[in-house]
Amino acid sequence: MIETYLGRGGDSGSFPMAMFLLWALTFASAFYWRPSWRPNYARVRVGILKLVPLPRANFDLKEFGGVGDGMTDNTEAFEAAVAAIREERGMGQLERWQRGNNGTIDGQGQVWWTRFKQRALNNTRGPLVQFMWSRDIVISNITLRNSPFWNLHPYDCKNVTVSNVTILAPVTAAPNTDGIDPDSCEDMLIENCYIAVGDDGIAIKSGWDQYGIRYGRPSSNIVIRNLTLRSTVSAGISIGSEMSGGVENVTVENIHVWDSRRAIRIKTAPGRGGYIRNITYNNVTIDNTMHGIVLVTDYNQHPDEEYDRAAIPNVENLSFTGIYGKDVRIPVQILGSEDIPIRGVSFRNVTMKLHKKKDNVFQCAYVEGRVFGSIFPAPCKNLDRYDDNGQLVMKSTSHNVSLIDYAL
Ligand SMILES: *[C@@H]1O[C@H](CO)[C@@H](O)[C@H](O)[C@H]1NC(C)=O
Ligand SMILES: *[C@@H]1O[C@H](CO)[C@@H](O)[C@H](O)[C@H]1NC(C)=O
Ligand SMILES: *[C@@H]1O[C@H](CO)[C@@H](O)[C@H](O)[C@H]1NC(C)=O
Ligand SMILES: *[C@@H]1O[C@H](CO)[C@@H](O)[C@H](O)[C@H]1NC(C)=O
Ligand SMILES: *[C@@H]1O[C@H](CO)[C@@H](O)[C@H](O)[C@H]1NC(C)=O
Ligand SMILES: *[C@@H]1O[C@H](CO)[C@@H](O)[C@H](O)[C@H]1NC(C)=O
Ligand SMILES: *[C@@H]1O[C@H](CO)[C@@H](O)[C@H](O)[C@H]1NC(C)=O
Ligand SMILES: *[C@@H]1O[C@H](CO)[C@@H](O)[C@H](O)[C@H]1NC(C)=O
Ligand SMILES: *[C@@H]1O[C@H](CO)[C@@H](O)[C@H](O)[C@H]1NC(C)=O
Ligand SMILES: *[C@@H]1O[C@H](CO)[C@@H](O)[C@H](O)[C@H]1NC(C)=O
Ligand SMILES: *[C@@H]1O[C@H](CO)[C@@H](O)[C@H](O)[C@H]1NC(C)=O
Ligand SMILES: *[C@@H]1O[C@H](CO)[C@@H](O)[C@H](O)[C@H]1NC(C)=O
What structural domains and CATH numbers belong to the chain? Predict the structure, then answer.
């Protein structure tokens, strides 16, 4: 929810070459798998972090002195493993991460959440798993839990697949434990995952204000499908608020969000620059949330006072098809602004049953777009209405009305 990490874009990078960094547990000292002396231990390859192609198939952390008892500090083992891989490959690439048990990396984040809430930390907390400047990565068949900060953070990576991954953290009181944060990444697939965490389930990002603009790397060509998400404090799937490098060509489909604050959220602000465009949401089921779809353009958290107030993000071409909700309090809230009008929004086959009959259900400001066929609740008058066959039924009466609440 609160963005603090890597906002300074590439400026914080000190790694000389393309390599990935497994940040796991440098702090939490907890690399967890079942110790090998357990009688029913089997050398099952379950958790796999993979970069290809490689001459050698496996690097087992235990060969480097790693101990998976949930207690031992494995920092040196991680460093030794990466050094060995770098020697063998000429760069720091790890292919398979072999572990027993059912492949869990437990960040034991409680101590970090507590210190964060006490304001007792001087630095940003570490994510559980972080890849930087890498490509051709497959992360599958693994459970990540209790990250001190974000769980999985691919940063400036290309061709990343995340499949059949379970990500868990307490859904309240585990600050910033986002599930997956694709950050300035290209060609990414996230599928078949279960995510229930203390912040956004997924949050697509690309740098913060002037730092993100300078680094200038968008998140693009991302497909997110077949996920179940729960986010009690934030949203199932977010874009932003740090999106200064741009976010483009994202498809989100076959998604189920339950018992959450919000299902779909896009957040930006003046000063971000960049763009959010060509984003498609298809077949999203929403079950018991405060908000269904929320777009805001006043998310005014800035890294410092040096941001460019004239850097206005462009938000354009967002389509929502097959959005089915029940027990939703405020189904749609699209709040563009005079500075950041939202253009090219479309809705098809949207039905969100309300938690209770009430007003304020489809709120719009500074938005231009179209609705097709029947939409429930009745759409705001900012949008042009078409029938199922694409024939114009009624032109919008205003694009700009600010914060009028539309009743049923
Ligand atoms: C597998 O991992 C999950 C999540 O960490 C845990 O709840 C479960 O008990 C584990 N199962 C086994 C057989 O260890
Ligand atoms: C944070 O910085 C202050 C001042 O430099 C220092 O006294 C304190 O020990 C630091 N706290 C931690 C947790 O490093
Ligand atoms: C993407 O990565 C996968 C898995 O590492 C690999 O099999 C595939 O060839 C890569 N695709 C491209 C276009 O490089
Ligand atoms: C998903 O991963 C779990 C281990 O976390 C494994 O037991 C299961 O077979 C995997 N399922 C698929 C379809 O790959
Ligand atoms: C995930 O686990 C399933 C079932 O064990 C296996 O078939 C599949 O190959 C695994 N995925 C990867 C990428 O290893
Ligand atoms: C969707 O993902 C779940 C795991 O979360 C998996 O069991 C199921 O088979 C997937 N469905 C499809 C159609 O791939
Ligand atoms: C929009 O993105 C989709 C993939 O999500 C892509 O197939 C399509 O070509 C893009 N359209 C434009 C106009 O960029
Ligand atoms: C988005 O998709 C379109 C159409 O496939 C492509 O032309 C464009 O380059 C893509 N944008 C990015 C940033 O990859
Ligand atoms: C829509 O998504 C749900 C999962 O949320 C899935 O079960 C269903 O098969 C999807 N429908 C279609 C038409 O793909
Ligand atoms: C948005 O969609 C419209 C209509 O399909 C298209 O003309 C325009 O080029 C798109 N804009 C971007 C930035 O893709
Ligand atoms: C609506 O707002 C846009 C963007 O601020 C502006 O260009 C346009 O003139 C306004 N239209 C009306 C009718 O006020
Ligand atoms: C809405 O869904 C129905 C049934 O799936 C389909 O027949 C219809 O064409 C859809 N309408 C639009 C506007 O996509």
Answer: 99-403 (2.160.20.10)
CB 332 within 8 A of CB 262: no
**Ligand 1: centre distance to CA 102 (Å):** 6
- CA torsion sign for 286, 292, 293, 295 is negative
Residue with tokens 């490098």: 245
Residues in the chain: 408
Q: Which ligand is nearest to the CA of 120?
A: 2
Asked whether 388 lines ligand 12 (CB < 6 A), one says yes
Ligand 12 close to Cβ of residue 387 (< 6 A)? no
Contact by Cβ (8 Å): 315, 276:
yes
Per-residue pLDDT reduced to its tens digit, 81-119 = 777 766 665 544 444 443 334 588 899 999 999 999 999
Closest ligand (CA of 390): 12
Alpha-carbon span 234 to 247, nearest angstrom: 20
The CA-based diameter of the chain, rounded to the nearest angstrom, is: 72
Amino acid identity for residue 291 in this structure: H
User: pTM for the full model?
Assistant: 0.85
How far away, in angstroms, is 74 Cα from ligand 1 center? 21
Identity of the amino acid at 243:
M
